[in-house]
Design goal:
8% strand, single chain, four-stranded antiparallel beta sheet, alpha+beta, 9 helices, 260 residues
Length: 260
């Protein structure tokens, strides 16, 4: 376990599926078969728990899935909003609401800058330079915002993640891909501390962040035309920074530079 596990939607969904299965009077397996699946509009997770339960009980997997979904929906332990539906022969699809995503992004953006790693930290590494550069880019953008009165950044501030209809402001493809990579890295770290898994997740996150940075403006016309969107984008930078720092320093044991 690590201090960012509470940000993993996969870990949250897994715990709630386990709770719902037990509430349905069944014994959940030691390992819940749940994983993230590709979707262009949602952070979508797929769970096949009904299939092995049905096989062991000689029951209809779809009926088991429907009962688990009903128990999931009325679970008093859910502190984040998820939708759940039964698809096909008994698969469960789950996804957090935009409000839930916004809440987690805000929590991430409020994490402190100080290092929490007690281990000695290696310096700049050529093989990890893209990750270290992405972290330094996050820091420099936030430092620039601190000095810019038009889009001033204050640590711990609340960002306008949602529009008037309660939907995420960040809906452009590169914005959503960055959000997806952010939570995918947290999911993978919650699931496994294997260095190769962490490195793959961190590399994907740094790549998506740099794509977002190149494609989505923070300064210029966007500040006057859509100030809430500009601030939401700044918030995404603030939310990405501590995750990159955690991946570099606590998972990979290398320095997370604030400037290069």
């Amino acid at each position: 376990m690590n201090h960012l596990d509470t940000f993993s939607f996969e870990a949250i969904a897994t715990a709630e599926i386990r709770r719902a299965t037990a509430a349905n009077g069944q014994s959940p397996p030691a390992s819940i078969p749940l994983k993230r699946v590709e979707d262009s509009q949602r952070l979508l997770y797929s769970c096949a728990i009904a299939l092995p339960l049905a096989a062991s009980e000689g029951a209809d997997p779809r009926k088991i899935a429907e009962a688990i979904a009903a128990a999931f929906s009325r679970s008093p332990g859910r502190d984040l909003d998820f939708s759940i539906e039964v698809v096909g022969s008994g698969w469960l699809h789950l996804w957090p609401s935009d409000r839930a995503v916004a809440r987690q992004l805000q929590r991430l953006s409020e994490l402190p800058w100080e290092s929490t790693s007690p281990e000695p930290i290696e310096g700049i590494r050529r093989d990890l330079f893209p990750l270290q550069y992405a972290h330094a880019r996050c820091c420099s953008l936030l430092q620039m915002a601190r000095r810019d009165g038009a889009i001033a950044y204050i640590e711990g501030e609340r960002f306008p993640w949602l529009d008037g209809a309660g939907r995420l402001n960040l809906c452009r493809r590169t914005e959503f891909e960055e959000i997806g990579a952010l939570f995918a890295s947290l999911d993978r770290c919650a699931r496994s501390g294997d260095r190769a898994v962490v490195l793959k997740a961190a590399t994907a996150l740094s790549h998506r962040f740099l794509n977002f940075y190149r494609d989505c403006r923070l300064w210029g016309d966007i500040q006057a035309e859509r100030p809430d969107l500009a601030r939401s984008r700044l918030g995404l930078v603030a939310a990405t920074r501590p995750v990159l720092k955690f991946l570099l320093e606590e998972q990979l044991g290398v320095f997370a530079p604030e400037e290069l």
